[in-house]
């Protein structure tokens, strides 16, 4: 009798254990919501040149890129930003989940100040698309920068 209940317990365990990856990997709904929020807050701050406020939405190893961007701000850029009638705006586009911990987010950005070449004055770009890599660690999505964000370039 003991062997019979142990056999059923083992079978139930195997079924649950086998189904767990399928159940966990099929539900990106809650995860997608948190990822969109992260991408939205990062984009709002980054494209309006609030680099310090963008820090909570990037991985620790991405801090250096935001610090570098901040170090390249010149008075001419500040003057352009101050003279803009409105700040940058954006829309979160498609999200491609590679797996449960890596995704790519398309962000369409309008009316933002761009720096093309370090040491030169920035200029206003009417519209551009960016593709950001996002990673999930401890159930928290963050943007991972491997360089300064570039327009229409797959990262």
Strands of the widest sheet, in order across it, are 1-2-3-4
Determine Rg (CA atoms, Å). 22 Å
Uncertain regions: pLDDT < 50 for 5+ in a row? Answer: 16-27
What's the average pLDDT? Answer: 84
H/E element sequence: HHHHHEEEE
Number of helical elements: 5
Q: What class do helices, strands and sheet pairing give?
A: alpha+beta
Amino-to-carboxy terminus distance: 60 Å
Number of strands: 4
Write structural notes for this entry.
The protein is of the alpha+beta class and 155 residues long. Helices cover 43% and strands 27% of the residues. It has helices at residues 2-26, 29-47, 51-54, 63-71, 75-83, and strands spanning 89-97, 102-114, 123-137, 140-144. A four-stranded antiparallel sheet has the order 1-2-3-4. The relative contact order is 0.16.
Per-chain topology:
Layout: H1 2-26, H2 29-47, H3 51-54, H4 63-71, H5 75-83, E1 89-97, E2 102-114, E3 123-137, E4 140-144
Characteristics:
globular, 4-stranded antiparallel sheet, alpha+beta
